[in-house]
């Protein structure tokens, strides 16, 4: 691993990686007496003068694998010397296609393995968010393996949100602006809309939980601020998924609970933007789509009613201008 020959280094790093996965071998003595982490740090430092080189991949793989192994949790501080070099490589690297393929994926995994607490450079934070915008599927149902590929990036952003300056920068990019509120939150294509929608998406459980935690963190872990940022509908779901105790009194009631009387407290949308065109046009939906939308609305209003946040009759149980009750004779293919 200390050879001057890049082929020797690459091969030895791969062999060490095999020794660290699914084996009973304990590498702790090599950390404490064999300078294993220092050797990895030195090798990484040799690759920061130029653009990312493929030959560094085995070393980054080894670092991220060792760092993710709980057996070596007490040793991960030894990789802190590699932090500035990995950040430099990430800043220089072009965003590939797909955006979370190598080298970006390797660099993100390596950053997760290093227990840093300091603020990241603003350029790095912006780049990570830019990568997320490209990597996050617009429709999670079609995200395929997004739950595993995007989760490390979301986990890294969640960690960086502990730092004040980074948190402020993430807030500006990830929390709905007035422009986003021209549409009901969770219904648009911008990053804030997609994160809010993701926090309730059961098809990607890891991303769902990470999105909920990130939005909660950006809301200062304050239930009322969360409701202001995402609306009652999604906010109550996030509070439940994060096991955060709350009461109706904590959240307030009505539009003034949002801190802004011009915003619908349920959807987070500006009242002025709530036109007939912005409402679901059930007449143009298929029967299957109607049933799916009715079921989603029923669950949403039942959740709100049971928590005591609002005292309303579930509109799915009656005819209204927006939601139509579905009778048994209106469906041929469903059991209920």
UniProtKB/TrEMBL annotation:
Pfam families in the cross-refs: Ric8
Annotated InterPro entries: Gua_nucleotide_exch_fac_Ric8 (IPR019318)
Family in the record: Belongs to the synembryn family.
Source organism (scientific name): Neonectria punicea
Lineage top rank: taxon: Eukaryota
Top-level taxonomy: Eukaryota, Fungi, Dikarya, Ascomycota, Pezizomycotina
Keyword terms of this UniProt record: Chaperone, Guanine-nucleotide releasing factor
Protein name per Swiss-Prot or TrEMBL: Synembryn-A
């Amino acid at each position: 691993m200390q050879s001057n020959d890049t082929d020797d280094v690459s091969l030895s790093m791969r062999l060490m990686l095999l020794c660290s996965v699914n084996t009973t071998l304990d590498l702790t003595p090599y950390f404490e007496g064999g300078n294993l982490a220092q050797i990895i740090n030195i090798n990484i430092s040799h690759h920061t003068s130029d653009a990312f080189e493929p030959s560094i991949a085995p070393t980054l793989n080894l670092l991220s694998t060792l760092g993710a192994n709980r057996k070596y949790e007490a040793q991960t501080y030894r990789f802190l010397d590699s932090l500035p070099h990995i950040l430099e490589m990430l800043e220089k690297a072009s965003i590939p296609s797909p955006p979370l393929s190598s080298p970006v994926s390797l660099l993100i995994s390596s950053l997760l393995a290093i227990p840093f607490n300091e603020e990241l450079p603003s350029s790095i934070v912006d780049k990570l968010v830019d990568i997320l915008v490209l990597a996050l599927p617009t429709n999670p149902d079609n995200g395929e393996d997004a739950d595993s590929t995007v989760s490390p990036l979301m986990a890294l952003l969640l960690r960086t949100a502990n730092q004040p300056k980074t948190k402020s920068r993430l807030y500006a990019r990830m929390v709905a602006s007035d422009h986003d509120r021209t549409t009901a939150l969770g219904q648009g294509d911008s990053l804030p809309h997609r994160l809010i929608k993701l926090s309730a998406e059961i098809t990607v459980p890891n991303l769902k939980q990470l999105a909920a935690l990130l939005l909660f963190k950006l809301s200062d872990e304050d239930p009322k601020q969360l409701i202001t940022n995402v609306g009652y509908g999604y906010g109550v779901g996030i509070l439940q998924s994060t096991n955060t105790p709350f009461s109706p009194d904590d959240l307030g009631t009505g539009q003034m609970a949002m801190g802004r009387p011009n915003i619908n407290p349920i959807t987070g949308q500006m009242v002025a933007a709530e036109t007939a065109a912005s409402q679901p046009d059930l007449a143009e939906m298929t029967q299957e789509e109607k049933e799916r939308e009715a079921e989603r609305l029923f669950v949403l209003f039942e959740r709100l009613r049971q928590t005591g946040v609002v005292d309303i009759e579930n509109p799915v149980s009656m005819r209204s201008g927006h939601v139509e009750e579905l009778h048994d004779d209106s469906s041929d293919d469903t059991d209920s």
